[in-house]
Amino acid sequence: MTYPPSHERFAPRPLPQNHGDASQHPPAPQPEPAPQHAEPEPQTSPVPQPLPLASPTPPPHSGPVTGFVVPGTRGPQQRPPSAPQSNSTSAFTTGVPQPPQPPTWTSTQPGPSSPPRAPRRRGGTVALVSVVAVVASLIGGALGSRLATNDSVARSSVIYQSAEQDNAALSRQEGSVADIAAQVLPSVVAIEVYSSSGGSTGSGFVMTKDGYILTNEHVVAEASSANDVIVTFFDGTEHEAEVVGSTVEYDLAVLKIDRDDLTALPLGNSDDVVVGDTTIAIGAPLGLQGTVTTGIVSALNRPVSAGGGEDDISYINAIQTDAAINPGNSGGPLVNARGEVIGVNSAIAQPPGSMVTSPAGSIGLGFAIGSNQAARTAGEIIERGYATYPIIGVVLDSTYQGQGVQVIRSPQGGSDPVTPDGPADRAGIEAGDVITAIDERPVTYADELIVAIRAKAPGDTVTLTVRTSGGERQVKVTLDEARSE
């Protein structure tokens, strides 16, 4: 799984950029008609990228979800993805099984000496919407004219009565998607980030009345100063935002704007979520602010890892949903049927082998960070300016092909198999031991174990099932704390 900055090629023509004067763009060339008997163009298969040395190779029938991109829009101003660099799998500091990385999003990015950003204009997009609306009204008017000319007065009156009855039947009920969207939309923002190397866009939502906004770390990763980040509310108001803090480990970031009259979205309990619950995703996919999509909770506790390198990896114990999530939805809320936030939209999946030839977009496999994890991490960032995550202090052997996850047998890369006086060491875990379950939940691959640990908090106690040369036993491990950098 990779996340934005990684994005696939989109077949449709990119939407107009919101920067610069739209009137200065030359008219778009007219498409040439396709030949009637054109030979099919041969498709170039993506060149398989080597997995990191320490990446386990899961069997095709099971294992953690792979093949991800993260939905943060990066058009001509987006940063390219970095290649995986990890050579070992550490349960809590480095290393996670990395699938083959998708190709870099091809774009022309400004260099370090690029000029200041131009005034942001939305005329291009607005014009596009307006043209569609005008065309629709003209078609409707022409059709209505034909009906009025060819039908009798009695027939016309029947048509109007039917329309009135339909409008009455469409009254929005409390708790409907329309009702929930109306409540949530004013507290969801579109986020634009500018930097010397390009920029990114994503989504976020209001956490507190006094201006704290939650989003994904990868959305604001390139921001270096307060005026690099602009948030836009549904009513069109804009504010410069400061990045209070962020954590790559959980792919979360907190922004602050100068407002004290905001409406915070209520946070639900993600531990109460069950498969089949209604979900509503709200954000700005492809810059289309205020987009609302619906679905259900498709699965829980999906182990999802994302990132482009050893120091750029997030571990998500994810909620899976089939609500459409697309590039630009990153950081937006996933809400339940009561309008409570149950997750932070973070990643989408693409079919294996489709990274080059298929556009990045929703195929009904979206993933969100649970609201409980998001609340804990955001609370730490607001209070301390940084986040923490739990560790047990072992390095895992990702080449191990047996059942479970094995601790390396000898030091690797300057790291001991078991950190002296760390949680695992205190619990009696040794080099070469195999961890087969955490809290009776089986683990088969390194990232499954890491994700399960990261779903806890420092100070929590977990039960690990460990297989040693003398047999299998269960040990209790109290998790230590590490600071996210």
UniProtKB/TrEMBL annotation:
Biased composition (Pro residues): 43-62
Domain PDZ: 390-470
Keyword Calcium on entry: no
CDD domains in alphabetical order: cpPDZ_Deg_HtrA-like
One Pfam family from the record: Trypsin_2
Any one GO molecular function term: serine-type endopeptidase activity
Biological process according to GO: proteolysis
UniProt cross-references to InterPro entries, sorted A to Z: Chloro_Bact_Ser_Proteases (IPR051201), PDZ (IPR001478), PDZ_sf (IPR036034), Peptidase_S1_PA (IPR009003), Peptidase_S1C (IPR001940)
Annotated spans, Disordered: 1-123
Comp. bias intervals (Polar residues): 84-96
Compositional bias ranges of the Basic and acidic residues kind: 1-11
Record keywords: Hydrolase, Protease
Record carries keyword Repeat: no
Gene3D superfamilies with a match to the protein in the record: 2.30.42.10, 2.40.10.120
Entries under SMART domains matching the protein: PDZ
Superkingdom in the source lineage: Bacteria
UniProt-recorded name of the protein: Peptidase S1 and S6 chymotrypsin/Hap
Source organism: Jonesia denitrificans (strain ATCC 14870 / DSM 20603 / BCRC 15368 / CIP 55.134 / JCM 11481 / NBRC 15587 / NCTC 10816 / Prevot 55134) (Listeria denitrificans)
Lineage: Bacteria, Bacillati, Actinomycetota, Actinomycetes, Micrococcales
